[in-house]
Amino acid sequence: MDVKLISSDIKEILRYLAYNNQALDEGIKQQVLDSITRVNEASEAKYIYKVFEMEENSFPKELIFLKGDGIKNHLKGCHKVVLMAATIGINVERLIRREQIKNMSNAVIMDACASVLIEAVCDTVESNLRKEVAKEGLFLTTRFSPGYVDLPIEIQNQFCDTLNTAKTIGLTVSDSGILIPRKSVTAIMGISKSSVKKNKRSCNDCNLKENCRFRRNGVSCSE
Amino acid sequence: MNSIIFLDGGMGTMLQEVGLKPGEHPEEYGYYNPEVVCEVHEKYLKAGSDVIYANTFGANSHKLKGCKIDTKCAIDSAIKTAKKAIDKFESQNDVKIKKRVALDVGPIGELLEPLGTLSFEEAYDVYKEVMIEGEKAGADLVVIETFTDLLDAKAAVLAAKENTKLPVWVTMTFEKNGRTFTGTTVESMALTMSGLGVDALGVNCSLGPKEILKFAKILKDWTNLPIIIKPNAGLPDPATGLYDLKDVDFAKEMLEYIPLGVDIMGGCCGTNPSYIKNLVDNVNKSLKENKDNHEVLGAVEENKIGAIKNGVCSTTNVVTFGGVRVIGERLNPTGKKRFKQALEECDYEYVCKVALEEEEAGADILDVNVGIPGGEEIKLMKDAIKELQGVVSVPLQIDSSNPKVIEEALRVYAGKPIINSVSADDEKLDAVLPLVKKYGAAVIGLALDENGIPDTAEGRFEKAKYIYDRAREYGIPKDDILIDCLTLTVSAQQEQAVETLKAVRMVKEKLGLHCTLGVSNISFGLPARKHITENFLIQAMHCGLDFPIINPNVLSLMDAVSSFKVLSGEDVNCDNYIERFTGRIETTTVSSAEKDKSNKSDVSGETNEISTSVLKGLGEETKKLAKELIESGSKTEIEVINEFLIPALDEVGQLYEKQKIFLPQLINSANAACAAFDMIKERIANRGGESVSKGKIIVATVKGDIHDIGKNIVKVILENYGYKIIDLGRDVPVEKVVDTVLSENVTLVGLSALMTTTLPAMKETIVEVKKVAPECKIWVGGAVLTPDYAMEIGADFYARDARDSVDIAKKVLG
Q1: Which residue ranges does the record assign to the AdoMet activation domain (chain A) (predicted)?
Q2: Hey, where are the domains in chain A?
Q3: For the domain A7-196, what is the CATH code?
């Protein structure tokens, strides 16, 4: 899979930088465009997913680490659950580290580019999968990740073990539960026989709501 | 050609078929179901495997966390099970060569520093336990497999070689682009692992036989060791996870490896006993049919041995020997006050910055010297190597005369470095050469001994010859020996320049060794040094100097190297030369155009010019203006800071607060101010004056957390307000913060954490600091924090952004 940033992603990248319609001179626009190019060059998107059968409200034995009401609600009415993981690779990590030493503002912009790119990768995986299940007349929920609502972030380890991500896509989990490379995502989706309402991500479910730098500036992290 | 050693196929695949669940630990499963594992082993033995891998891939203390069994239990049981299978098989069959059990060692699964948080030493300890238990349990050899990080693999190899007597095999896992997930190349693995003295090496997992073939060819070019190939059953379907090669096709594709001279074959994910049976039958049949033919091929292989490529490498980058390779000299405190200060303050960011400049200027290898009076050289060297290899990709040269420093650096270096240096004294040779051999490095020999530098070329040649002979006694390959014939200052000892050049020629012609020289020393004390340095460099290269140690930032020197490579024929078709100098013309044009533009904007700016250039983020401009103010005598350094730079930053800060500018613009302005600050700091350091610090501040990203970009922004901004920032980095242990607060007598500490999982570490850090230094103020920041929570965990202040941090610093330190 070869998902890359395109110049129209600038809007989204700026949103990650908490941009609020300040005047942009050519210099800074060029800085963002250059950052996009360099993140694209360094990135190697990889993903993996696995589909598990499930009973209403009850996970198979290997997924008992999925705890809390949030994920149960999310998967209401689903007969299958999909675990996915994606990363844009360690090279981007290196690039941003180097840039933090050379030019901090480039680093900040590249970090935002990388965030947008990993989201784009996940969106691509999700929509491809949605197309696949639609062929069988089935429906796919949106993504739900560890850290949303009451699904603890501490499950990253078991989550990644289940998909064997270290071996399959080079995604590891540190001792304190951090995904490395940092620009990586784990997420859960459900497959249902009946249409699922599109759970738009909302600020109400977000743990960062109280102190969100986006909200403070009157914007939001996603459209 | 000898016969081929056959390995087994997938274990996980087989166990999953009989009930192992994804995410479940195969070692735990094997412990409770030994008969199932035993049966798998037996099937492979029947299929023709000579070596079977025990079910110990994830049997280490990290992976087994939360399991009902520990490492010892898991390994003991798995090796016993494998041995039982062999006993049973051998009692029922007539076996010519005894079957062997390998202790299968997989990676811990956590990424090492600096990209991850696991330290080399922790990794080593984890593997050490595995190796010791494996040998005790009766394994016949160690197989370190499926590694993707060269340093991780090195930790495992050292753990095996230093704690057991078992043979050690290593295979790593590569992607289609010839790199592992962490960027290790096939060449780097071959150089590093051959150097460490493993018994066989190769590739496993990741891809099918067809895709791996090209890696096997590369391995043959870079090592004489037996090669192991253990591919998957083709490529997996991303949705089903099923592999696309059938057993017959797998075996057919594996035949391609016979003419290459691959010695050890097996299968990895997706393969089962039927794949191995097909493999064994097909390969044996082919060997028999083509016996005569292969003898001829075998002879070809013999001839090839002399042609093995050599070089040095980092994990991502190989520098091949054969031609001129520039070694950057700037990571060295001698005569560089700013660099010395950075080492005194353990400011590795500055060290990395200098390194990146050298790399970008085109240095092939970077010399690293951290010797400062009163400095802990071992710690400095180890930390510098760890930090450097996280950001630069060129190989490093470890520059120290202390064998202890050399050994510690050799351990943590991810690749094959050069050791600089050893002289022709037996005491030194006997201390350093064994390390060079053990860790598989290249080494620089200095053509001198305890009696000093010989005056004549012949005298230095004798010393070089002696080092060469001693190195050969230790089994160090000839191609890994570099001789430094020593550059003396021409203004002091004029006749010596010729002797040095003559010695280089003798060493090159008579011994056929590589030559290095610290070139710049020639011009010391002379005006317009670069002319002499350049001229000497060119003459020395003509005499055979192939590893000049120079300042790569001096354009004329790099130009000389580039030109030399054209004339020597190394730069085929002058491609690199053309690329270098075509680019040059363009740059000159652009930069002069830029100059015009900035000059024009100067004229238009009537108000405080510095504040305008800071606001616009123009670094060079800001520096120029500040310099003019100081040099014209109208303002002192301190006045420039207080009257111009800080007010300009305050103005930018207010614009940021009012959302007139956004984060990248704020940082661009900080960078611009920083250029002026650096100039001022350098001026003050050069005249030996007091630093301009307004007070010391510690910043750190807490233990367990690696999200440090926010902390680094805070650092950039605060530095520009004249505070001295002690940056402890990320994933910082509580004790390190506490110790630094005490040793540096710091009254303000900033902590950052981005994850809910690392907030407890933040709280613990605050509690411990307050215990020993109640008066020390602490401020915290990070996405998951709120003002309330910050107070709850005992912080004095909460900062929502870098701008807030400035106000806090002003409040506490003034």
Answers
A1: 71-191
A2: 7-196
A3: 3.40.109.40
Is A176 in Cβ contact with B117 (below 8 Å)? yes
Of B238, B240, B55, the closest CA to residue A168 belongs to B238
Tell me which amino acid residue A1 is. M
Higher-confidence residue of B567 and B598: namely: B567
pLDDT digits (tens, 9 = 90+) for A87-109: 999 999 999 999 999 999 999 99
Which tokens in the block code for residue A72? 């149960």
CA separation for the pair B520, B515 (Å, rounded): 15
Residue B364 confidence (pLDDT) above 80: yes
Any bridge partners for residue A49, and if so which?
Answer: A84
Q: What is the DSSP letter of B345?
A: T
Whether residue B702 lies within 8 A of chain A, CB to CB, comes out as no
Predicted pLDDT of residue B292: 57
Reported as a pLDDT band with limits 50, 70 and 90, residue A212 is low
Interface test with A, best of B392, B663, B801, B804 (most A CBs within 10 A): B663
A170/chain B closest Cα distance in angstroms = 5
Q: Which residues of B672-695 are buried (b: 16+ CB within 10 A; e: fewer)?
A: bbbbbbebbbeeeeeeeeeebebe
Task: For residues B268 and B9, give the distance between their C-alpha atoms in angstroms, rounded to a whole number.
Answer: 5
Q: In what order do the strands lie in the sheet with B724-727?
A: B724-727, B696-701, B748-752, B777-781, B797-798
Report the residue of chain B nearest A85, measured CA to CA. B238
Distance from CA of A82 to the nearest CA of B (A): 11
Window 78-137 of A: residues touching B by CB (8 A cutoff) are 89-91, 93-94, 96-98, 100-105, 107-109, 111, 132
What pTM did the predictor assign? 0.90
Using CB atoms within 10 Å of the CB of residue B457, give its burial: 0 to 12 exposed, 13 to 18 middle, 19+ buried. Answer: buried
Tell me the per-residue pLDDT of B633-673, one tens digit each, with 9 for 90 and over. 888 888 888 889 989 999 998 898 888 888 899 999 988 99
B420 has a chain A CB within 8 A of its CB: no
Each residue's pLDDT tens digit, B11-54: 988 998 888 887 789 999 999 999 999 999 999 999 999 999 99
CATH superfamily placement of domain B5-292: Homocysteine-binding-like domain (3.20.20.330)
- Does the domain at residues B442-553 carry the CATH identifier 3.20.20.20? yes
The CATH architecture to which B607-690 belongs is Orthogonal Bundle (1.10)
Residue B298 has pLDDT above 70, yes or no: no
Query: Which fold, B693-813?
Result: Rossmann fold (3.40.50)
Task: Enter the tokens of residue B185.
Answer: 């190349």
Q: Do B712 and A175 touch (CB under 8 A)?
A: no
Alpha-carbon gap, residue B513 to A174, rounded angstroms: 45
Q: Cβ B758–A176 below 8 Å, yes or no?
A: yes
Task: Check if the beta carbon of residue B1 is closer than 8 Å to that of residue B287.
Answer: yes
Q: How is residue B782 annotated by DSSP?
A: -
Nearest-CA distance from A95 to chain B in Å? 8
Which pLDDT score, from 0 to 100, does residue A201 have?
62
Task: Reduce the secondary structure of B755-775 to three states and give it as a string.
Answer: CHHHHHHHHHHHHHHHHHCCC
Residue with the two structure tokens 């350093």: B432
Give the closest-approach CA distance of A66 to chain B in angstroms: 13
Using CB atoms within 10 Å of the CB of residue B369, give its burial: 0 to 12 exposed, 13 to 18 middle, 19+ buried: buried
Structure tokens at B34: 């030994």
**Phi and psi torsions of B492, nearest 5°:** -100, -45
Nearest-CB residue to B661 (from A22, A27, A94): A22
Dihedral angle at the C-alpha atoms of B413, B418, B423, B428, nearest 10 degrees?
Answer: 30
**Chain B 283-312, residues with CB within 8 Å of chain A CB atoms:** none
Tens of pLDDT, residues A126-156: 999 999 999 999 999 999 999 888 899 889 9
